[in-house]
Design brief:
Largest interface: A-B, 43 and 42 residues
Number of domains of chain A: 1
CATH architecture of chain A: Alpha-Beta Barrel
Structural class of chain A: alpha/beta
Radius of gyration of chain A: 18 Å
Oligomer: homodimer
Order of helices and strands of chain A: EHHEHEHEHHEHEHEHEHHHH
Shape of chain A: globular
Mean pLDDT of chain A: 94
CATH topology of chain A: TIM Barrel
Low-confidence stretches of chain A: none
CATH superfamily of chain A: Aldolase class I
Distance between the termini of chain A: 10 Å
Strand order of the largest sheet of chain A: 1-2-3-4-5-6-7-8
Number of strands of chain A: 8
Number of helices of chain A: 13
């Protein structure tokens, strides 16, 4: 059924990025059902939650339980977001397989989002790496560089800032550095240029493309990243989520549409689209009334469609 | 204000493809206001209507009046769709500057849509070209090859059918042959492959990419076409329209999002995005209650955005 030699890795961020962006809190039992359905579709990486204080994000209060459940399902990598060392300690204790740390390329967004300068965040990441090295050397540490393509607060984010920050993070010992279009300002020419520069700077530490569909360019930007060698893509089932701290930002790339694009192109994802679309039901059951998106689920798969 | 050396040509099809796909009929006075607003945005090509019997498409009954008005506005090419020789006679009499004739690549769709085989359509196109040559040699004749990327009736449309048909149309004397994703089944790899093969077959007669957003891939497919040298793109303000004869087909590419993508990439369109977005108001005034789409108009232009 599933392609056993996928060409791209789709990293589902809905249970983290999606759920922490909506007002309602999904109950733990609904989260577990949704994650089971996502696993059944053939996904090989999932971001299950954020290790942050429950009073800041009550939607994530049960993250350790959700993580434990996801770890019991075989054949995928279970990630969690941690904003700082304290979060990393908790996530590592809970048995996380991969950490992702958001670091803003925009100086203004960094201060607004985590009240730290970018340099302070690099130092924090270095402490997280040291903890990982000492206590859980097999755990991967990824940085998702937010506002890499522009910022709603400061506007333009110079390429040089992105590459300078990536180099500093590589020196700090992270395994992967991805670029996030937090604010939906990226365009395909910029995506190609920045990922090309990123690879020139950090080589195989080049990580995921995390694109938003704020202005409709999400898939075009993923295609552009694929064209310059990116092979990991963050997306969210039903397009759930965005960044609540970047005013006007909205709309993760829809996993269903992204998987359809790649499979239709002959690029294997290892994901069964019908089962992926079926995972919308437990999402909707757990978040009644919350709008979800996706053109492929609405239109259906085209006549004659086959997975790679 | 406008870039006087645009790198791509955006061909607005809303007044034809959009209006003939909705149930309501826009009044002539509203059409003229809408066309004025589209012209003011800097568009350089527009498809104003179809020359078809009014009893088949009452939305197009006033096409000659609308055409005459559009011809009075300077600096753009005024097109009309004609399904056959009779339509071409009427359009040429009305003073059209460019004819577009739909010809299906899918044998099944050709019979369902115009009750003619593809070979009969090539013969009809040859008669249209002969009429043009005899009576209005400066008028351009374009074929938009529908279902070039797949068909909801027959499923797969072989590349060889598309290229065979393009070659026959080139021999019949048309000036441009574009490829249309009538059914929203195209993917970027296929778009690159087919336009590459098309150019190899017909050279500079390669025409527009007419993409649909049925499964969310509209802009990614436009990017793919741009990558292999396509420089004319059909789209519809507010994403109005689709093909009423291809079951399940919907969603023209949204002009506003397409223009935003190119301008953000540094590819000049010659179009002022604010004025383009302002042209949504007369569209909505003329079609009250009709849903229109577009991510860029909803999100707004990003901070620091500049036209090329």
């Amino acid at each position: 059924m599933y392609n056993t030699n996928p060409a791209v890795l789709i990293s589902e961020v809905g249970p983290r990025d999606g759920l922490q962006s909506v007002q309602a809190t999904m109950s733990t039992v609904h989260k577990l059902r949704w994650i089971d359905a996502l696993h059944a579709s053939g996904l090989r990486e999932i971001e299950v939650g954020s290790f942050v204080p429950a009073k800041l994000l009550p939607q994530m209060a049960d993250v350790a339980d959700v993580l434990r459940h996801a770890l019991g399902l075989p054949g995928w990598t279970v990630m969690a977001l941690v904003p700082n060392l304290r979060g990393a300690e908790a996530a590592l204790q809970a048995g996380v397989q991969k950490l992702t740390v958001p670091v803003s390329a925009s100086a203004a967004h960094s201060l607004a989002n985590v009240r730290k300068t970018r340099e302070e965040m690099v130092a924090e990441v270095a402490r997280i790496v040291a903890l990982r090295n000492a206590t859980a050397p097999r755990v991967q540490v990824e940085v998702g560089m937010s506002t890499a393509f522009g910022c709603t607060l400061q506007g333009l984010v110079p390429d040089d800032d992105v590459i300078w920050l990536a180099a500093a993070l590589a020196r700090a010992g992270v395994d992967e550095i991805g670029l996030s279009d937090t604010t939906g300002m990226a365009n395909p020419a910029q995506v190609r240029r920045l990922f090309y520069k990123l690879r020139a700077e950090v080589g195989d530490k080049t990580g995921a493309a995390h694109m938003h569909n704020t202005r409709g360019l999400g898939l075009a930007n993923c295609l552009a990243a694929y064209d310059v060698g990116v092979r990991t893509f963050d997306s969210s089932l039903g397009g759930l989520g965005g960044c609540p701290y970047a005013p006007g930002a909205s709309g993760n790339v829809v996993t269903e549409d992204l998987v359809f694009m790649f499979e239709a192109m002959g690029v294997a994802t290892g994901i069964d689209l019908k089962k992926l679309i079926a995972a919308r039901a437990p999402l909707q059951a757990g978040l009644p009334g919350e709008p979800i998106y996706g053109m492929t689920p609405e239109a259906g798969l085209p006549k004659g469609f086959m997975h790679v």
